[in-house]
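Structure first, sequence second, as always.
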């Protein structure tokens, strides 16, 4: 029993990182879908939604949390679906933000990448939550 409680703070911290990373993906989706729609109504929002620097900053904010959680998950040799989905989603986001020849596909790549990455973090968070409940005796 002591072993489970010893690892609980690490699991809890990592769960917070999953929620942070999923939030970053949601922010990315809002940026890619809502801001362009708003941009038709508000010229200032249109300028922000088209700024390439914003895309790059959002990806660079989401990447560290994702890479850290992929690393921690790989060390524990568990949850391979999270690793594959997270790496795929992050790769799509990086390609959309930084590969200029694919700029015309930026929005679809970003939407798919953010959705896959966000779903991977939610899946990991739910799995950790189930794990904690099972080991705490909560039903």
């Amino acid at each position: 029993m002591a072993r489970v409680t010893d690892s609980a703070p690490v699991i809890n911290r990592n769960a917070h990182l999953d929620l942070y990373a999923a939030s970053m993906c949601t922010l990315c989706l809002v940026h890619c879908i809502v801001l362009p729609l708003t941009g038709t109504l508000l010229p200032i929002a249109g300028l922000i939604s088209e700024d390439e620097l914003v895309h790059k900053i959002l990806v660079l904010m989401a990447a560290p949390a994702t890479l850290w959680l992929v690393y921690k998950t790989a060390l524990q040799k568990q949850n391979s679906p999270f690793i594959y989905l997270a790496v795929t989603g992050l790769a799509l986001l990086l390609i959309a933000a930084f590969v200029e020849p694919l700029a015309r596909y930026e929005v679809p790549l970003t939407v798919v990448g953010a959705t896959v990455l966000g779903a991977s973090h939610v899946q990991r968070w739910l799995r950790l939550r189930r794990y904690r409940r099972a080991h705490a005796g909560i039903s």
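Margin note: The chain has a mean pLDDT of 81.
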